[in-house]
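Two entries, shown back to back:
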Amino acid sequence: MSALKSLELLLTQGAISRREFVARVSALGLMAAVSPALLAGEARAAKPKKGGRMRIGSTGGSTS
């Protein structure tokens, strides 16, 4: 049985209050939203390349 279904059952049986039900369901939702971010692999940067051009845009500059 899923955690949500077991919480619904506890609520309908009167074992927990509505306030406790909402708190537990909110915690489940937060856990579901945060867990993929914690389990993601580490990011790796691309290797730098030699050569190329560096273009910078600035305000108030002139072409002369």
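entry 2 starts here
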Amino acid sequence: MAQMTVHTLVVDSAGQPVLVLRPMAEGSGPTVLLPIWIGPAEAAAILVALEASPVPARPMSYDLMARLLEASRASVVRVEVSRIEQGTFFAVLTLDTPDGTREIDARPSDSIALAVRVGAPIFVADDVLEVAGVRPEEAGDGDQESEMAAFHEFLEGVDPDDFRG
């Protein structure tokens, strides 16, 4: 299980938003990036949270979820991208509630949009990283800029169906 952070949001060659997760702790080997294709609404919600944009008077769905959890005296303990089946990612949202710990099945995009708002950690199962993780070819000195250039080149030629089993 690897703790991850939202590295970036990009758009692939077909115009689809791609959420890119990166490990919190850098290892000694090449960086593993996890691309997850998401919907435009979820991408916008994650971007708003990442940029710490002010919450409008009428909250977005994820802001409402955070407020409902707070009003219920519950909190998000963690988000885990738990598995991938036929190219579809699955997540588990772990909550701490007055009645104990609860795990809820959820889409990764929804879970991550909520986690970014409430500061909850994001984890990815090792087998998910093994199947869907991308190791950009390190060009030159292996700096972040060259890694992202290699990753963008990868996105130009990849299709989400490439990850279906």
